[in-house]
Amino acid sequence: MSFAFxxxxxxxxxxxxxxxxxxxxxxxxxxxxxPIKNLGYANIDYHRGIRQGACETxxxxxxxxxxxxxxxxxxxxxxxxxxIITRIDLPVAAYLKKKKIKLTYFxxxxxxxxxxxxxxxxxxxxxxxxxxxxxxxxxxxxxITAEILGNKVERVYDAGVAGIHRILSEAETLSKAKVIIAxxxxxxxxxxxxxxxxxxxxxxxxxxxxxxxxxxxxxxxxSMLNSCADGVSVVNIDxxxxxxxxxxxxxx
Length: 252
Hints:
38% of the residues lie in helices and 19% in strands. It has two domains: 7-114, no CATH class; 123-251, Rossmann fold (3-Layer(aba) Sandwich), CATH 3.40.50.1970. It starts with 6 loop residues before the first helix and ends with a helix. Helix 6 (136-148) links the parallel strand 7 and strand 8. By secondary structure, it is α/β, with parallel strands linked by helices. Strands 8-7-9-10-11 form a five-stranded parallel beta sheet. Strands 3-4-6-5 form a four-stranded mixed beta sheet, with helices on both faces. The chain has a two-stranded antiparallel sheet with strand order 1-2. Helix 6 (136-148) runs parallel beside helix 11.
């Protein structure tokens, strides 16, 4: 059986070599089997965990259900946990479960997690703030991603600037955060307002929520890029996953 490794697992392996529990040759053989697996339609990066602390994430949109199944099946043979699949819908999740894939599906976030293992001691605090209820799917993509990566997450939903008292009433929660993810469509003002209330970094996520002149999130994106508050960084439109990953790295 070949394995893929996280940083902690590599350190454990090296420690076992040091104590004589495993030979250097066997350790080397295990590591050498891990780097890349070519499935013909995908090259799986099995050293991603060593470099970044978590295994490769699968972007499900545009892939067939059979391709996704093939990728996660191969990853599962290498004892990997918390394999994230983003942007998959219920029929794909149902297909994977039918194929005996150990999938936990989060429908609002459209995220599937294979071999899900909940973090025992989540670290720090990431607070996710949404402008409106319509932004929640993107918020949940960020939240679930951050939680899977081992972070403590709190949600503050429907706190947009149309009723400024809503975000102001959450000042105590915001002040405890190591990093905040502000998710909003329309004119995207939530990021600037939030950043003006706190000292921690704010990751702004524009969403495609809004009327015609929002241009599918472009208006919010430009507004967030032009934030007058300090400490705001911006990810792409509807990119909750990217925000969750960045927040996790800042938090840790």
